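Hey all, quick one. A colleague (J.T.) asked me to put the oxa(dethia)-CoA job into the tracker so the inputs and the structure tokens live in one place instead of scattered across chat threads. No bug as far as I know, just bookkeeping. Sequence used:
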Amino acid sequence: MSTEQQTFPRSRIAGTGSYVPSRVVTNDELARLVDTSDQWIQQRVGIRERRYAAPGEASSDLALVAAQRALEAAGLTPDDLDMIVVGTVTPDTPLPACAAYLQKKLGCKEIPSFDVAAACAGFLYALSIGDQFIRTGMMRNVLVVGVETLTSIMDFTDRNTCVLFGDGAGAVVLSRTDDTSRGWVLSTQLHTDSTLADALCIPAGGSREPVTAEILEQHRNKVYMNGQDVFRVAVRKLTSASLAAVAAAGLEPSDIDWVVPHQANLRIIDQVAARLSVPYERVVINIATRGNTSSASIPIALDEAVREGRILPGHRVLMCALGAGISWASALVQL
Ligand code: UT7
């Protein structure tokens, strides 16, 4: 594979931010709703607790706090933004985009603001889009958000899925750089293979089968997942996309300082880290307390590791995610 041309301008992550709602939901609490146990969830998935949005708290509310924190870290204001791209499958309303509500709450000027529905890969898709706009010279500062209020689409009678997910938001500000002595987004890789489109989906409630009383009764407007099918493909695709992102930058996995993987299952993270031969202490893991927050999971983990002083300026960070579609993506950035 040819390596990325190091032409300028490039985009760099100028600031990160995240927000999780205050309500903590333990495994024991879910065990009162469905036939599950703290032991099963911890052993099979690695989750101890997750956060749930408050009633009436929408994705744009979570995104707003994450965005404000990212802007502050970047030393910018909403007026400095040229575009907002939000990765989400749980917008405030089906129409308009969550990004439109976010723009309104941020109070910024008339800038393009739109959502990207690539499920758990949504943040990396959004990051890649922002990166392309900056690299063409068209934009200077792009707000990239991953946000989900997954509790709004979870089936709380299905133990296969309801124990897995949480709510939250993460954001980064991508800024143009012409400075070769700083880090930048080194490469992004985006993929979709629809062979397994039905393995992780919301079966009804869209244009094919608009919501009816029967659909509501059968919970077919909620998330369905064949976990084993997704698990098998996840380990393979996350590994191959990660290796591709590293190779595209002309680097080896040993050149990576941190891996920030999508937090879907600790066993998936373990296997991907092993296949990449990345030491475990170089992998950012917060699934125990955040659960799977889909498109928010990577930017939350990234921001937490930055604020904890683990990920430092100059570090090379590899991110990878896979989810419904099946869509998967990776990105290699130097902070
Ligand atoms: O973020 C988007 C991408 N998503 C993923 O990457 C998720 C990938 N998949 C997974 O992480 C795992 O497949 C799950 C965590 C979803 C499930 O774990 P698993 O080890 O694959 O379990 P399984 O589906 O093979 O089920 C094993 C058993 C079944 O019981 P039987 O048939 O063996 O009696 C399930 O009914 O575990 C049962 N089970 C549960 N038991 C207690 C399933 N969910 C639960 C539960 N509590 N919550």
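Adding what we noticed when we looked at it: The CA atoms of residues 48 and 288 lie 5 Å apart. The pocket of oxa(dethia)-CoA is lined by residues 36, 40-41, 44-45, 120, 159-160, 163, 227-228, 230-231, 234, 264-265, 268, 292, 294, 322-323 (CB under 6 Å).
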